[in-house]
Amino acid sequence: MTKVSFFDKRVIENFVKITSAISVTLSLLVLFVDIPTNSKTTYGWIFIGLLVLIYLAIWIWSNNLNKIDINIEGSEVTVKVGDIFSEPGLKAIAFNEYFDTIVDNKIISENSLNGIFIKKYLGDPISELDHHIDKYSFDESEKLESNTERASGKTLRYQIGTICVYKDYLLAAFAKLNNNNKAMLSMPEYLEFLINFWDKVNNVYGQQSVATPVFGSGITRIKGHKTISDEDLLKIMLWTFRISEMRFKYPAKLTIVIHKDKIDKINLLDIKSARNGV
Question: What pLDDT was estimated at residue 278?
Answer without folding.
Answer: 36
